[in-house]
Amino acid sequence: MRRAIFPGTFDPFTIGHYSVVKRALTFMDEVVIGIGINENKKTWFPTGKRVEMIEQLFADEPRVKVDAYACLTIDFARDKEAQFIIRGIRTVRDFEYEETIADINRKLAGIETILLFTEPELTSVSSTIVRELLQFGKDVTPFLPEGMKID
User: Fold this and answer.
1) Percent of the chain, pLDDT > 90?
2) Can you tell me which residues bind substrate (predicted)?
3) Going by fewer Cβ within 10 Å, which terminus of the chain is more open, N or C?
4) Is 17 known to be catalytic?
């Protein structure tokens, strides 16, 4: 079974992340979306709510699993018996950073990283921008995965 993890970065209300997972499913048997738990990091939604929202997004896709973790990404990948780590990238700068991290993961754990660009029309949309728009009461519907609603 070809299993990959999409660790730490998945934001349930950013269409770019959703599209990366959908694209990964075209060549993976299963994708585990990992929600990194960091007590010191401020998040828009608590972990349980994020897991619930992501499960709702992929309710019709049994090959997507969601789990929270508070360890190194490579340890989470090993725990899930994943052969690959999927990372979404928007820009060349993201690519350079992620390529370095991929090399470290390969050297430390022998796990390959697959870097997937978001669609060109989504490259300027980050979860930070969506959260800021939400904070100021702006309509973020164009940036949400189909069917996603913000409570």
Assistant:
1) 26
2) 9, 41, 73, 87
3) C
4) yes
Amino acid (1-letter code) at residue 99: E
pLDDT digits (tens, 9 = 90+) for 10-62: 666 566 778 889 889 999 999 999 988 876 666 667 788 888 888 888 999 99
63 a known binding residue?
no
Query: Distance between CA 109 and CA 135 in Å, rounded?
Result: 39
Q: How far apart are CA 106 and CA 55, in angstroms?
A: 29
Question: Catalytic: 78?
Answer: no
Contacts of 144 (CB under 8 A, 6+ apart): 13, 14, 15, 130, 150
Pairing relationship of beta strands 64-69 and 84-89 according to DSSP bridges: unpaired
Q: Which residue among the candidates 17, 23, 50, 80 is catalytic per the annotation?
A: 17
* pLDDT tens sequence across 94-111: 788 888 888 888 888 889
User: Is 19 a known active-site residue?
Assistant: no
CB under 8 Å to 100, separation ≥6 — which residues? none
**Quick check: 35 and 47 in contact, CB under 8 A?**
yes
Question: Annotated catalytic, 90?
Answer: yes
